[in-house]
């Protein structure tokens, strides 16, 4: 469900952002390291630090606004 939303955000924001999707079933260490309890979990990192996180679906325009706050 999030894949088309993430594609839209990436397409709209271009090189300003990097979007990475991790399959936690194939990468349980990543889920553990970032304490992911639910899917989807969205996390915004800036310079290696977590700036924002949310579990659940979010619309593209809302996500773009949130990302813009951290650019």
From TrEMBL:
Protein's recorded name: Thioredoxin domain-containing protein
Signal peptide feature range: none
CDD domains: TRX_family (cd02947)
Annotated InterPro entries: Thioredoxin, Thioredoxin-like_sf, Thioredoxin_domain
A Pfam family reported for this protein in Swiss-Prot or TrEMBL: Thioredoxin
Domain Thioredoxin: 1-68
Organism, as annotated: Mucilaginibacter panaciglaebae
Keywords from the UniProt entry: Disulfide bond, Electron transport, Redox-active center, Transport
Taxonomy, superkingdom: Bacteria
